[in-house]
């Protein structure tokens, strides 16, 4: 296996998400080299040219359209290729089309003796992370999905607005499927260590159940609302990609809710879904158990069952 260049990343798929992720990564300064691939070579070339023209206003790096052979020494390959989610279409509706695309992409990456981390962004991200895991043969720690990092950011943003507090002081997770069966873990949510219900009352809010239900629904429907207005979501997920890459490149040991394989954690096996995980230079180091109520645990198990059923249908 060829040694990896920790300052080199690749993006496969230069649509809205891939291109915006490239722009975000350029501004971050995490990498000194970024290769972009797309089935439409001219699209990749155009995006690389457009972004690279801003380098004199940022910091030096190499951004270019490349081939699969250019991925051999990349430390992270971000998989953003796939069909876009259409208005009225769920993420799980995309699975057949995008799994077929992955069958063409992942083996070609592995033919390059790829030794880095696969970061799956394409939806439905949980199922496709499991598809990528099986197609690549890589260790589970090095095949991860962006999961509910963006959903969790949306939750923190809405709670920050609701409570008139800096959203960075809000500590809460969305877990499960990145999709319709996701849910917030309210039982462990807090604002700088203060239980969420207590902090709500400090701010004059007492109708907890109704308000929590409304916020959870807003998070879950965010993508649908954005797609209905502008046909695609890409800024938020690009920032989520940058956050995950930062945790890996800097070996931060950050805890992020990523799509990862479970083997008995939370009583769930044979499923890939989003739960808090410790992330560093090697990818996912371990799943982090957080406190859940009995109802929340059941919701997590139900979400895993939905994803497991979708994968089974895909394989048959």
What's the short story on this structure?
With 316 residues, the protein is of the alpha/beta class. 43% of the residues lie in helices and 21% in strands.
General description of the model:
Helix 1 (16-28) packs across helix 8, helix 3 runs parallel beside helix 4 and helix 5 packs across helix 7. By secondary structure, this protein is an alpha/beta fold. The chain has helices at residues 16-28, 41-52, 95-110, 125-136, 149-163, 196-202, 208-230, 235-249, 294-315; strands at residues 5-12, 33-37, 62-65, 74-79, 117-120, 143-145, 170-171, 174-175, 183-184, 190-191, 194-195, 254-263, 269-280, 283-287. Helix content is 43%, strand content 21%. The mean pLDDT is 94. Strand 1 (5-12), helix 1 (16-28) and strand 2 (33-37) form a beta-alpha-beta unit. The chain is globular, with a radius of gyration of 19 Å.
* Class from helix and strand fractions: alpha/beta
Oligomer: single chain
The named CATH superfamily of the largest domain: Lactate dehydrogenase/glycoside hydrolase, family 4, C-terminal
Q: Taking strands numbered 1, 2, ... along the chain, how are they ordered across the largest sheet?
A: 3-2-1-4-5-6
Task: Please give the largest β-sheet.
Answer: 6 strands, parallel
- What is the average of the pLDDT values? 94
CATH class of the largest domain: Alpha Beta
Order of helices and strands: EHEHEEHEHEHEEEEEHHHEEEH
Q: In angstroms, what is the radius of gyration?
A: 19 Å
Coarse morphology: globular
Distance between the termini: 33 Å
Number of domains: 2
What is the fold-level CATH name, i.e. the topology of the largest domain? L-2-Hydroxyisocaproate Dehydrogenase, Chain A, domain 2
CATH architecture of the largest domain: Alpha-Beta Complex
Q: Classify the beta-strand content into a percent band.
A: 15-25%
The tally of beta strands, per DSSP, is 14
Low-pLDDT runs: none
